[in-house]
Write a structure and sequence with these properties.
It is a single chain. The chain is mainly α and 89 residues long. It has one domain.
């Protein structure tokens, strides 16, 4: 059961990382953020990214907050994998 729960959490984190990447790609295209897909992804991703936007200033007009946010999610995934290995599943 623990192994399944860890697997499920990892898959949810993978999907959320994909949403962040898609959101970043949508910001490159004018008008894409005003589409239904853009608005939906923004509602899902922006609360998480807001924390990083507040603490990481943009450099040269480029925000590196999404990169750090994805890195943190990868660290969480790694932590979950290590915990399940320590438990023995």
């Amino acid at each position: 059961m623990v192994a399944y729960l860890a697997w499920l959490i990892n898959k949810i984190i993978d999907a959320y990382i994909l949403l962040i990447v898609v959101w970043c790609l949508l910001t490159w295209f004018p008008g894409a953020m005003q589409s239904r897909l853009g608005e939906l992804i923004t509602k899902l991703v922006q609360p998480y990214l807001r924390f990083f936007d507040e603490h990481i200033p943009p450099l040269g007009g480029i925000s590196f907050a999404p990169v750090v946010a994805v890195f943190v999610l990868y660290l969480v995934q790694y932590g979950i994998i290590m915990l399940t290995r320590m438990i023995g599943y």
